[in-house]
User: Fold Heme A synthase from Halobacillus faecis.
Amino acid sequence: MRLLKWLSVFATLGMLLVLLGGALVTKTDSGMGCGNSWPLCHGEWIPSEIDVALIIELSHRLVSGGVGLLVLSLSVIAWVKVGHIREVKFLSFLAFFFLLTQGLIGAAAVKWGQSDFVLALHFGISLVSFAAVLLLMLIIFEIDRKFDAHSLLIRKPFRLQIYSLTTYTLIVVYTGALVRHTYSSMACLDWPLCRNASPFDFSLYGSAQWIQMGHRAAAAGVFIWTGFLMMKALKDYKNSPIMKKGWILAASLMVAQVLVGAFVIMTYVHLGLALLHALVISLFVGLLSYFLLLSSRSAKYERSVK
Assistant:
């Protein structure tokens, strides 16, 4: 079990690197750093001409490939060793399948090109894989101390809120990725509003403003919804440290996400802040996935006592 625990930790950290690496490739416009050649760089095993874009793109490919092997190993070993645990087989499949899918989308984009709307799916697909790996890690560390469904029962109305918020958050993540891939990050130089002489401009530049403001409005929905669920958790689950601390952390991450997003605009898309923006939303989605796991167990327990 010790090997499996360490493997799960490294795979989870590796997935975070994959997410940040993908964001770095997009933010620095390095997607074609190796030309339209994949998996080689400009058709060469060892590129003869090296620049920054090539280093970023090739590093991302190498990290993704190495992490892919880690995730595959974790999925297979977890399936064999702890596959009797209810969620393990599904999460094992989910983790590797979505990581493979995002890799294929990336390869297709390099070889044949893809629309911005398809490329925007890339980050969200990687997030699903990250969430699955994170949950596998938590389950593996949980084995020594079994989860007791009686200790935390998330009631159905709150579970439905968690399911809905998670779905909505993934949609918002997609709009954020669309902002990056359509180069709309600086379409509005003001924050939080977009003061523009032609607010209903539907030209090429005007559409970028709509994409940017659409993402901000959608993100505001996640911020408000998370705050509401935090208040509800503090009121309805006073005796549950997991619910209280978890939703305080969720709200804190969302506050950080909004502030970092504002600073990204104010600093004209500072690269470090842009990567921090991607990291915070990844952690937020990971936390939501944990609440999904707890909700699933609560639902199973409710069905068993009926």
Observations:
- The chain has two domains: 1-146, 149-306.
- The CA atoms of residues 109 and 115 lie 8 Å apart.
- The chain has a mean pLDDT of 86.
- The radius of gyration is 21 Å.
